[in-house]
Amino acid sequence: MSGSTLVWVLLAFAAYMIFMLCIGATFMKKTSSTEDFFLGGRGLNGWVAALSAQASDMSGWLLMGLPGAIYAMGTGQAWIAIGLFIGTVCNWIFISGRLRRYTIVANNSLTLPAYFENRFKDEKKILLTVSSVVIVVFFLVYTASSLAAGGKLFNTVFGFDYRFSLTLGAAVILAYTLMGGFMAVCVTDFIQGMLMLIGLLVVPIIAYALISGNLQDILTSSGVNSASFLNLMENDGKPLGFIDILSQLAWGLGYCGMPHILTRFMAVKDEKELKKSKKIAIVWVALSLAFACAIGVIGRAYLFPTILGTEGTGSTETVFIAMITKVFTEDIRIPFIGGLFLCGILAAIMSTADSQLLVTASSVAEDLYKNVMNPQVDQKKVLRISRITVAAIAILAYIIAWDPNSSIMGLVSNAWAGLGAAFGPTVLMSLFWKRTNFAGAVAGIVSGGLTVIIWDYIPLVGGQTLGSATGIYSLLVGFIISILLIVVFSLLTPPPTEEMLQEFELAASDKELN
Rounded distance, CA 160 to CA 174, Å? Predict the structure, then answer.
């Protein structure tokens, strides 16, 4: 990249980052309570709710992890995208409305742990504590994946040292999250969601138009069997088995347990806006996932004879970055536009990291500190502790992401599984099975989270983890075990109280709650 080109790209990045910080500063003046900081006063409109939910969901994984996996191993990796699409649709159709109503019924719960506490009348605050610990543990890993993606972006585009890049990206995300809280995060996520979608649609179409020659022939020249590479039933040249497909589809199960997505449902202004959000979110995610997969395929041909490696900041996970750079600085010389599209990748990274920081802060400050340790504390102190927590979590995630060889896909996979298995079954059963009780909820959260940790991190089979030995995604195993234990423990212990049953019926009704 020439000096003048680099200047234009830097200007685009600088303009984008300054704009994000200005949004944070604007909403800082409007953030005076914890409900403002964590849920924006339940005032989200349909467009902001939809795009902020999906932007905070997809992260750098959508623009780096997924295209990189397909670039390296072929379209067999697209089963993950199919599973996520199904999960998104089900989450918006079946979970969003009922969860929003139930959190209002359950003492106007501001966070997922608070919802569990109020839903199951947990006076000892066991659910609140366990849920908050799970969020802090797994969101640390999740946030680290976003920061690692930012480091790789700045390293690949500007040639900055990875660790310097990591520091720069973390500082900007931390700044506007600290200042503006939930509304700043949602408005920036809305803008970032639009930018991500435009980049996903435009870049692969232009790159495909610029390919000279037959796509399949170029794929073969790049070192892959084109028929196998484009075959949905093969992965890295090998046939996909039933377990492989099931494990990839199981990613969709994670949606109903993701606190940073579920809080968007809780914060929507009313039922009318929620219905609008459903349609917008489903269209956005369908387009985004389809074109992210296309980037992996088209990028393999468009970038040839360059073949990306498997490790470090020049890994296959930088395929979209490399495509944008080549299109707008070599083939079509409009570097400022290229810089804006590269900001789309930064947008994906920032939109998830800020949400993760905010949810983790809410678990520590609102759930653990205010509700468990110091119930008499005033709102201003809780708000102050929330901001301190955001900074502390960002620093810890920054340390985890320090290794430039950190795999974005690997970090996201582990965190997604942990949160999905711990919370997903409990959210589902709490909303749709009125017999679910306190004992069942505790058993579900603990068993789901522990199963993922044991499955992914403890070598039990000849020095291998159960995940490596079986090829089964830990989320699938944890989800099933959690559901079973929720049912067993709920049936073996006393049924819910009459008050809990009445709240269940109210939340399950079509009555408008604001």
Answer: 20
Q: How far is CA 278 from CA 327, 393, 425, 430, 433, in A?
A: 34, 31, 22, 22, 23
Cis peptide upstream of residue 425 (ω within 30 degrees of 0): no
Q: Is 41 left (phi over 0), alpha (psi -120 to 50) or beta?
A: left
Beta bridge partners of 464: 461
**Model pLDDT, residue 198:** 86
Q: Is the pTM of this model over 0.85?
A: no
What gap in Å lies between CA 328 and CA 330, rounded to an integer? 6
Nearest to 342 by CA among 17, 3, 2: 17
d(CA 476, CA 449): 12
Tell me, what's the pLDDT at 181? 55
User: Which pLDDT does position 41 carry in this prediction?
Assistant: 47
In this structure, are residues 110 and 181 in contact, taking their beta carbons and an 8 Å threshold? no
Q: Where are any strands of DSSP class E within 385-481? A: 459-461, 464-465
Q: What sections of 230-378 are H helices per DSSP?
A: 242-249, 259-267, 271-302, 319-326, 335-361
Between CA 52 and CA 37 the distance in angstroms is 15
- Across 393-404, b (16+ Cβ under 10 Å) vs e yields bbeebbebbeeb
**Alpha-carbon distance 101 to 148, whole Å?**
36
Residue 382: predicted pLDDT: 73
What local confidence, expressed as pLDDT, does residue 177 receive? 64
Instruction: Please report the pLDDT score of residue 206 as a whole number.
Output: 94
Is the distance from CB of 487 to CB of 447 less than 8 angstroms? no
- Which residue stretches of the chain have pLDDT < 50? 37-41, 312-313
